[in-house]
Amino acid sequence: MPSYYYKGQFRHEPSAFDPRSIMMTARRLMTSRKGIIYLFGGFFFCWFYVLVRMTFSSTTSPYVLPPLPPIEYSKMWPPNLDTLLCRPKIYVYPDPPAIQAVYERVPPVNTPYISERILLEQLRDPHSSAYKNYVTLEPEEADFFYIPFLGARYLNHCWFILGEKGDCDVDEQYVLPMMQHIQQKLPYWNRTFGQDHLMAHPMDRTSHYYQSREVMENATFLTTVGDLRPVSSSIVGSRRYKNIVIPSATALLDLVKADPLQYLTHEGHPRHKKRDVFVLFGGRYSDVQPDDVYSAGIRSLFSSLEKQPGYVIGPGWETDKYMKLLSRARYGLAPMGHTLDTTRIWEYIAFGVVPVIIADGIIEPFEDDFDWKSISVRIRRKDAHKIDAILRAIPDEEYQAKRRRVWEYGRRVLLTRDSWHLIVRDLCRRGRLEGKRTIDRNNHANLTLPYVSIHT
Ligand SMILES: *[C@@H]1O[C@H](CO)[C@@H](O)[C@H](O)[C@H]1NC(C)=O
Ligand SMILES: *[C@@H]1O[C@H](CO)[C@@H](O)[C@H](O)[C@H]1NC(C)=O
Ligand SMILES: *[C@@H]1O[C@H](CO)[C@@H](O)[C@H](O)[C@H]1NC(C)=O
């Protein structure tokens, strides 16, 4: 009870907390009519307030339930990539004699379109785990046939070394000699009309560089472009259920053969600094207008983002500088360009950068088996102007989880890591395999053996 000193004596100050005065007030209220009205009014107000809060409340703290118990490995998605779905045998055709003669005139060219060469080399290298796991030298026991088609090598040599334009007579000189040898001299294509044949088409327009593409259309293509947009099949030859989307090669990773561990620790952290670049992008953007067809105008937004704190956006950097920036970046922008795919995404993944994919309708490689959502951020074109707000709203905990996933899991997709293993999983998921001798899902004794990484 508060008291104060007044003119030499203590006096008691009656307070609201004085139980006697409260009792008196209550009694006065209960007996007067006005008091009762106030009382009921008060109750009604409280009740109404609670009702409104319960209906419109956005500030109630979230109610977190206890987690569900774990389930069996075999019933989970994403699946355990270390077990096989099936173990098909792949026969790799030798280069037809006419094609060997072409290669003498057409040496390999160093362009980013060499995923066709990398995949073929893996199948032909007896030390690679792709070879050890899947290759057979006996065509009669093969489930799949690999056509050693290197169309990009022929065209890139013509375009970039000889400086010619157009089709470079590729059909007469390369496609037809290759396909005619396989279709007319050997019996395997005709047995299924090419349904069990595979070949790589690593450039943007897949088989659409070739007038005579009809002869190969029955084969399954390994392509670097996956596109769900309805127009895409006529423009880039994207065939959702016929092609298998693979990662593309990149100049930095596959030509320069940059080693991320030069800049990163084994845990994927920068060796020297912290990841202090919030968002990184190197490439074409400064001349792009919002209504351009190129990148659907998305890259026009980057000219304004460029000035924001934490953003490093530029036309590109020399190798060493770019590697340093990659090792310092948290997020990397991967907007569409001429097509939906961008080779940057593979560089981001190799350096532990979380890719921000802005390409509506893109099909990333191995989506049936690989959990892209956990390693990337996808932003729709219609939300692309809010990139900064979207990325800054991601809690640090969530960013860290994605970064760790990129490093520990995402890197398995890279072309020189487990690509063949993942291609084979896609093949196993296709129909019409049950007749195949070595694909017997129920009776294959060795499917649960942990497979050995494809890395050679
Ligand atoms: C496969 O079929 C085509 C078209 O019917 C035919 O021209 C070709 O000779 C056949 N190939 C073989 C090896 O019989
Ligand atoms: C492609 O398959 C169809 C049947 O599905 C067949 O009629 C056609 O001849 C095949 N083309 C080639 C080049 O084998
Ligand atoms: C399974 O793999 C083991 C070890 O590679 C091998 O010894 C065994 O013969 C295989 N079994 C079958 C049924 O292929």
Tell me about this structure.
The protein is α/β, with parallel strands linked by helices. It folds into three domains: 3-56, no CATH class; 90-249, no CATH class; 257-413, Rossmann fold, CATH 3.40.50.2000. It contains 16 helices and 13 strands. A six-stranded parallel sheet has the order 4-3-5-6-7-8. Strand 11 (329-335), helix 13 (344-350) and strand 12 form a beta-alpha-beta unit. Helix 1 (19-31) packs across helix 2. The longest helix is centred in the first third of the chain and has 24 residues, at 33-56. One 2-acetamido-2-deoxy-beta-D-glucopyranose is lined by residues 193-194, 215, 218. Residues 445-446 line the site of one 2-acetamido-2-deoxy-beta-D-glucopyranose.
Write a concise keyword list for the protein shown above:
456 residues, alpha/beta, Rossmann fold, six-stranded parallel β-sheet, five-stranded parallel β-sheet, 16 helices, 13 strands, 34% helix, elongated, disordered N terminus, binds 2-acetamido-2-deoxy-beta-D-glucopyranose, Exostosin, membrane, glycosyltransferase activity, transmembrane
Topology, pairings included?
Layout: E1 3-6, E2 9-12, H1 19-31, H2 33-56, E3 90-92, H3 97-105, H4 115-124, H5 129-134, E4 135-136, E5 144-146, H6 151-161, H7 170-185, H8 188-192, E6 197-201, E7 220-223, H9 232-236, E8 244-245, H10 251-255, E9 277-282, H11 302-305, E10 311-314, H12 319-328, E11 329-335, H13 344-350, E12 354-358, E13 377-378, H14 387-392, H15 396-408, H16 419-429
Bound molecules: 2-acetamido-2-deoxy-beta-D-glucopyranose (3 copies).
